[in-house]
Design goal:
Layout: H1 12-24, H2 29-35, H3 39-42, E1 44-47, E2 50-53, H4 61-73, H5 76-85, E3 111-112, E4 115-116, H6 118-137, E5 150-154, H7 161-169, E6 179-183, H8 188-195, E7 203-208, H9 215-231, H10 239-242, E8 243-247, H11 250-256, E9 263-265, H12 282-288, H13 290-309, H14 316-329, E10 335-340, H15 348-360, E11 378-380, H16 392-397, E12 404-411, H17 419-436, H18 440-445, H19 453-456, E13 464-471, H20 474-495, H21 506-520, H22 531-547
Parallel strand pairs: 5-6, 5-7, 7-8, 8-9, 10-11, 10-12, 12-13
Antiparallel strand pairs: 1-2, 2-13, 3-4
Helix pairs in contact: 1-4, 4-14, 6-12, 7-12, 7-15, 12-13, 13-20, 14-20, 15-20, 21-22
Bound molecules: 6-O-phosphono-beta-D-fructofuranose.
């Protein structure tokens, strides 16, 4: 077996980590901190404007040494270089993976099949900027001559979650004279509620879909066109003023009736969940303006450069990714909580769910072998402090190990009395409580009755990272997103999986296409499903008939 084909669990570093795990699994963070008064500084790193404290993890120097060895043995450097070079590292789709090219400065050169893609990236950004300026200034008029007041992005998955998250995250920087809404679900309620108080004459739809074939998006786009035309007197020329498209598929865009002059292009080397900084970010650019959008791209790029060039032991995404490997592979942690202490980041965990789980929810390696180690953990979270009054109980005292990422900002965008110090006090307190807990002795010393002592003990030893950033800006948001993107890359490279395909979403889509006509058929369809699915379909049809 060559080094490249060696299975992960057979590698010397993995075997050494297994042994090392036995010696460290019971070690308590209390002890690790007591033994090393400088641990809080030694296991912390500051770069590209992010302070990353990873000292409250169940690791020692030896753990890090072995994890870094694992990164080297699995060829992480080679994989990073291959991505930045434009190699077709998405092997199951035979595609390059070049979201890093979306934020490459003008003048850089990144080749895909021999063609430098950076000039095209900037041509689209320029076209987006010109369009955004026209909408923001009111120069772009609707069919009746009214200016646009509402922008609705129609998309799903990567064509929705990034735009929603970025709009919420950067709302402070947004043009408040425009309303932004996002429609994703095929559930008609999503569309109905998004438009119920809007005037079609003032509403612009951005139909965002890489493929322009996605069931949810195309269904919503058709409903949007009907709603628009109905409200604008049925003149189909109105579509040109009220619909633009973001896609890789110009033929389908034309077929829908959108002039390709009003189409913003991206490319098959941009994965959906890595596309929020491509033309998929058009709603973001209209909201925050082209200059802020470029600032966002600069932030992404700074983190890209850090990831590409920093030595692994000082590389933020690499360290973060290695810690995920450590907890999932050895402690068998099933989930990771992302806890931003910043209200504007309320959709950040939801965004990360697609980024992390669609990327690394894989059960076979690049060559199709079933893995014998856990891959992508479940990511979830809520902004603090709300989560503290909901699920933190389980993180503190439950039976599961849940590594947490705390994210806090030094300056708030909305200074209000003592709020911000209180917020940050909670970040620090939660990480402290999780790590160090409260012993039975401490609980008893407070005069707690014996019967209550076990209930009030905090075992501690619950790991976390704390990320501190000066201020939430477009630039720092770009850095944070790229940090997670590259952490996901690091994990996937070590697990030797394809982090850039998503075959797991296909089967359900295909089966739904088969079931739709069975639900709509006027005459009783011949059902050939399993008995459960057939009964459900039958029951739905009967009840629909009876109660309609
Ligand atoms: O859910 C699968 C998926 O293909 C995602 O990867 C993608 O982000 C989403 O659907 C939307 O796809 P599209 O942009 O082609 O409409």
């Amino acid at each position: 077996m060559t080094a490249a084909t060696q299975t992960l669990t057979g590698r010397p570093a993995w075997k050494a980590l297994e042994q090392h795990f036995q010696s460290i699994r019971e070690a308590h963070l209390r002890t690790l901190f007591a033994e090393d008064p400088k641990r809080g500084e030694r296991f912390a790193l500051e770069d590209v404007g992010l302070y990353f404290d990873y000292s409250k993890n169940r690791i020692t120097e030896e753990t890090l040494k072995l994890l870094l060895q694992l990164a080297n043995e699995t060829g992480l450097r080679r994989r990073i270089d291959a991505m930045f070079r434009g190699d077709k590292i998405n092997v199951t789709e035979n595609r390059a993976v070049l979201h890093v090219a979306l934020r490459a400065p003008r003048g850089e050169s990144i080749l895909v099949d021999g063609e430098n893609v950076v000039p095209n990236v900037h041509a689209v950004l320029d076209k987006m900027a010109a369009f955004s300026d026209r909408v923001r200034s009111g120069e772009w008029k609707g069919h009746t001559g009214k200016r646009i007041r509402n922008v609705i992005n129609i998309g799903i998955g990567g064509s929705d979650l990034g735009p929603v998250m970025a709009y919420e995250a950067l709302r402070h920087y947004s043009e408040r004279g425009l309303a932004f809404r996002f429609v994703s679900n095929v559930d008609g309620t999503d569309f109905a509620e998004a438009v119920h108080d809007l005037d079609p004459a003032e509403t612009l739809f951005i139909v965002s879909s890489k493929t322009f074939t996605t069931l949810e998006t195309m269904t919503n786009a058709h409903s949007a066109r009907d709603w628009s035309l109905q409200g604008l007197g049925g003149d189909s020329r109105a579509v040109a003023k009220h619909f633009v498209a973001v896609s890789t598929n110009s033929a389908k865009v034309s077929e829908f009736g959108i002039d390709t002059a009003n189409m913003f292009e991206f490319w098959d080397w941009v994965g959906g969940r890595y596309s929020m900084d491509s033309a998929i970010g058009l709603s973001t650019m209209i909201a925050i303006g082209p200059d802020n959008f470029r600032d966002l791209l600069t932030g992404f790029h700074e983190m890209d450069e850090h990831f590409r060039t920093a030595p692994f032991e000082r590389n933020l995404p690499v360290l973060m990714g290695l810690l995920v490997i450590w907890y999932s592979g050895f402690f068998r942690a099933e989930t990771i909580a992302v806890l931003p202490y910043e209200q504007y980041l309320k959709r950040f965990p939801a965004y990360l769910q697609q980024l992390t789980m669609e990327s690394n929810g894989k059960h076979v390696t690049l060559d199709g072998t079933v893995v014998d180690y856990p891959t992508g953990p479940i990511y979830w979270g809520e902004p603090g402090t709300n989560g503290q009054h909901s699920f933190y109980q389980l993180i503190h005292q439950g039976t599961r190990l849940i590594p947490c990422d705390f994210i806090g900002f030094v300056h708030t965008l909305n200074p209000l009395g003592r709020h911000h110090d209180m917020l940050l006090a909670n970040v620090f307190a939660q990480a402290e409580a999780l790590a160090f807990g409260k012993t039975a002795e401490q609980v008893k010393a407070e005069g707690t009755p014996d019967s209550l002592v076990p209930h009030r003990v905090f075992q501690g030893n619950r790991p976390s990272n704390t990320i501190i950033v000066e201020k939430l800006t477009p630039n720092t948001l770009g850095k944070l997103i790229a940090l997670y993107e590259h952490s996901v890359f690091t994990q996937g490279a070590i697990w030797n999986i394809d982090s850039f395909d998503q075959w797991g979403v296909e089967l359900g889509k295909v089966l739904a296409q088969r079931i739709i006509p069975e639900l709509e058929a006027k005459t009783e369809p011949k059902l050939e499903h399993d008995s459960s699915t057939s009964s459900l379909i039958l029951r739905y049809r009967q009840l629909k008939e009876k109660t309609s």
